[in-house]
């Protein structure tokens, strides 16, 4: 029997080809699945979930030039005549605001009607005459009565104004002012005060303005910032109260507390500075962290001795090393009237609240001996943002204090 064998062509087996084809096949499937789920996710986010928030365009004209801010919302310290009223202080208006008296402390005020973030300002001089404001400062208020200086650094900022009547000079406010009221205070001028202007920014998103979609969240109302800060209640411990000197242990700085009663063998009725060391005396409180101080009360020494401080100054510090004098008008340190007897409380509300960690009372004049009991008022938290704090840090660093003295005033994590 003959068997006929069927022959087949001979093929060589190459496993690397199969591996390559498997990898290509897997890559195609993976890419398809990735694109499918990515598109499904994006469609779900945009149609069912949330939309990406729009960044507010907070540099829009706030309405002086176009008339959205009504005449009744623009006021001034005075006006020269019926043709120079504050309602004329609108950018590109054919006129201007001019006050009755050509002197400092004149002001122009705008009431935005709601909490407003002001990011910029533009000014012009008079439309018809060669008069304009050459420099100015800004103040702002939450209530229209109590105004604070715009101090992006440690001092009130003076803005350069105009050099002719019609050119527009603009400044960006860094950090922005956030308040419903703002004032422009002319500091110097050419021949006569004359001003036209526009503010830029955005209104709070809770306002009824048609621009509220481009606004910013209204801040939470702030607590009444005149609470006692802890001298009388001992919330501020003795270890946080120091002084330049003391008469003896019973007259230590920790006894300088409002309404302290003299107790034999414990205290002598207040802080008493050492005699013959009255010059450069000071009484200091460390609040422990940033604190807003809005008022100060003082008394003299309680008991049988007639000692009190009749005049004093105040200084403050962010680090306990470098102190600045408290000032209200100009560049001269404010001198406060102190006491005229032992027990009457004399209170002073600070025109410009102090925001610092350390505060000092500097006795200037006194009756018999320097002796003091005191309380500070304010609050330990408020609307001072990280941008405000960073501006203080920037100033310290710009003074090169770290490199000069070899230590870090602030540490960034």
Question: Can you describe what's shown?
Answer:
Strands 9, 10, 11, 12, 13, 14, 15, 16 and 17 form a nine-stranded antiparallel sheet that branches. Strands 1, 2, 3, 4, 5, 6, 7 and 8 form an eight-stranded antiparallel sheet that branches. The chain is built from three helices and 17 strands. β13 and β14 (about 325) form a beta hairpin. It folds into two domains: about 60-215, Sandwich (Jelly Rolls); about 225-380, Sandwich (Jelly Rolls), CATH 2.60.120.260. About 10% of the residues lie in helices and about 35% in strands. It has about 425 residues and is mainly β.
Key features of this structure:
413 residues, 2 domains, mainly beta, disordered N terminus, 33% strand, Jelly Rolls, single chain, flat
How would you sum up this structure in a few lines?
The chain is mainly beta and 413 residues long.
Topology:
Blueprint: H1 15-47, E1 60-61, E2 74-76, E3 108-124, E4 132-141, E5 148-149, E6 159-160, E7 169-190, E8 196-203, E9 227-228, E10 241-243, E11 271-272, E12 283-299, E13 308-317, E14 323-325, E15 336-337, E16 346-367, E17 371-379, H2 386-398, H3 401-405
Antiparallel strand pairs: 1-8, 2-3, 3-7, 3-8, 4-5, 4-6, 4-7, 9-17, 10-12, 11-17, 12-16, 12-17, 13-14, 13-15, 13-16
